[in-house]
Design goal:
It is a single chain. With about 230 residues, the chain is of the alpha/beta class. It has a single domain (about 35-220), classed as P-loop containing nucleotide triphosphate hydrolases (Rossmann fold). It contains eight helices and seven strands; from the N terminus they run H-E-H-E-H-E-H-E-E-H-H-E-H-E-H. It has helices at about 5-30, 45-60, 75-80, 100-105, 150-155, 155-160, 180-190, 205-215; strands at about 35-40, 65-70, 85-90, 115-120, 140-145, 165-170, 195-200. It has a seven-stranded parallel β-sheet with strand order 3-2-4-1-5-6-7, sandwiched between helices. The structure holds magnesium ion and zinc ion. Zinc ion binds near residues 96 and 128.
């Protein structure tokens, strides 16, 4: 009988604990009728700009809020607050990913049934966020046209834990000679059939398609005006 090395054992326990908490969170979200979307990507892929546009578009029609994880600053939370949606920063310190416990703590004084959508922006990192379920309903993995088209091939695990992928900054795709077809092939080879949105938060291109998709996920029916 060989025991597992102690550090492996500790890590497995941490992950198990996270999964239990995440399952509880998911149940809580469902009971409250809030649809939860998390965002993962490398640093600088445009998560915050994309989220700011998404929050602004939904705000007023839906009750939206966001949690944003960052290692040190609350700059992103300040930017997102411009959408007028409630935003809370989770400063993770030395931890390079969000965990279910951090999400649970951050939600402490929010009343979930008062929300239709909750967005969780993870720390910019394509590696360990893949190991941590946050109880979300939908996980987006974003990559921008300023990154290599083979990013999905280098980080297949995060693409495999995500539900949908988003290619951002398509307004500058030509200028940076980004090969969109190649990028989409990379995604499809890791995750056949994965839904891919191509958009630009800056120009607004592709945002409508994304917003329609998102609104189709909400339990809330928005009545046509008039
Ligand atoms: Mg950000
Ligand atoms: Zn990490």
């Amino acid at each position: 009988m060989t025991d597992k090395p102690r550090l492996v054992q500790v890590r497995e326990n941490v992950l198990k604990h996270n999964d239990v908490l995440a399952r509880e969170l998911r149940q809580k979200f469902h009971d409250a009728g809030v649809f939860v979307v998390s965002l993962v990507s490398s640093p600088g892929s445009g998560k915050t700009a994309f989220l700011e546009k998404t929050l602004s578009a939904l705000h007023g029609k839906y009750r939206v809020a966001a949690l944003v994880g960052d290692l040190a600053t609350d700059n992103d939370a300040e930017r997102l607050a411009r959408s007028n949606a409630p935003v809370k920063q989770i400063v993770t310190g030395t931890v390079c990913h969000l965990e279910a416990a951090m999400v649970e703590n951050a939600l402490d004084d929010w009343n979930l049934p008062e929300l239709d959508f909750l967005f969780i922006e993870n720390v910019g990192n394509l590696v360990c966020p893949s190991s941590y379920d946050l109880g979300e309903d939908l996980r987006l993995v974003l990559m921008s046209t300023t990154e290599g088209e083979d990013k999905p091939l280098k980080y297949p695990t995060i693409f495999n834990t995500a539900d949908v992928s988003v290619i951002t900054k398509i307004d500058i795709a030509d200028a940076v000679e980004f090969d969109l077809a190649k990028a989409k092939n990379s995604i499809q080879s890791v995750r056949p059939g994965m839904r891919i949105f191509e958009l630009s938060a800056k120009s607004g291109a592709g945002m409508d398609e994304w917003l329609e998709f998102l609104q189709s996920k909400s339990a809330k029916t928005v009545l046509a005006s008039g």
